[in-house]
Amino acid sequence: MAIESNLDVVADDDRPECGHRAFVLLSTGRSGTANLLSQLGKTPGVRAYSDIFHTVNPQVHIPPDMLAELPLSLRDAEPVAYAYKALAHNPGQAAVVGFKIWRSQQQEVCARLLRDPDVVKIVLERRNKLAVYASARKAVKTGVYNSFPAGEAVDAYAADLVRFDTDYFKRYCKAQHGTFAWYRKRVQGKVLFVGCLQVADGSAYPRCTDILGVAPPDPPPPGRRRLNDGDILDRFHPDDHKAIMDCLTDSGRRRWRFEK
């Protein structure tokens, strides 16, 4: 895999060889990326970075050794160059290096990486948009974004109920569908499309290691447990259940009541 750290043009025969492959995980928030990236990061030969373009508390998501070499000022001033420097950042000499990102974080970087044939793309979509919507609202309300060992915070997340706004949900769905259509329209080179349920049931992981050219360990790394299960209506205030079902019926998406 050829990666140019100081990048002006992506496709360039004169790029220095870094000796490893690069990948990017493209999605939107609350879609299972933390789960999949956690598994990939525990795979021998893979160095998987998190949200290096996260806009809130980026120092929490970027490892200290990368922050020391690649300051946030570079990320803000030259985001494309920063992305390629991050893909080249490989102190452990892993066979594969990558990170996750989505369009709303840095559209220019996403567009550049999508059309770079030398970067493997994994596109992860949570197709049940009611589940995405509920998860996003619960995370913001509770401050719990990922499933760690059972405790009061996780229990509070599962028990918390959020409200439903029909007009906002319709706009939310339109934005979600638009983002993934945008990915599909621009992608070039080697790409793998996977779904959130495939991450949850473990079937996405071997497909990812296959496209990245690494051998999955036996047994595979454990994934993170889901924060909610069952009927998605149970994640909303009971007063909103009728409005939710009316909205799903009108759009032909009654199946979104359950994520299966």
UniProtKB/TrEMBL annotation:
It comes from the Bacteria. This is LPS sulfotransferase NodH. The lineage of its organism: Bacteria, Pseudomonadati, Pseudomonadota, Alphaproteobacteria, Hyphomicrobiales.
